[in-house]
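Chapter review: from sequence to fold.
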Amino acid sequence: VLMDPHTGEVLSMAGKKIVKDKDTGQSQMQDDALGNITTTYNVGSAVKGATILTGYKTGAINPGTVFYDRPLKIKVTPVKKSWRNFGPLNDINALKFSSNVYMFETVINIGGGKYEFEKP
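The token string follows.
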């Protein structure tokens, strides 16, 4: 989907998907423009840039803010962690390495909270 960032006007909607031909088993590409409105996907790391920007705009973080990337234990929830423990990370490296923990710490700050490790 291509939109005008100033007005929100939809300029174009296009899509393709790869499917297997039932007869030959070969992969082929098909038009799937309607997939723009009929298909859903988890947003995943695409939201991380928006999280950092929101942190800047709210004053929750500043460019260069460092958080220590390690597993977080928040009461009555599963452990929250990145795909590996990165140690100290600034905002740029948090985006570069796709740190989940940096995003959790940023959101906690946006909400005015303070993370404290929950002991078992």
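Two observations follow directly from the output. The chain is about 30% helix and 20% strand. The longest strand covers residues 16-20.
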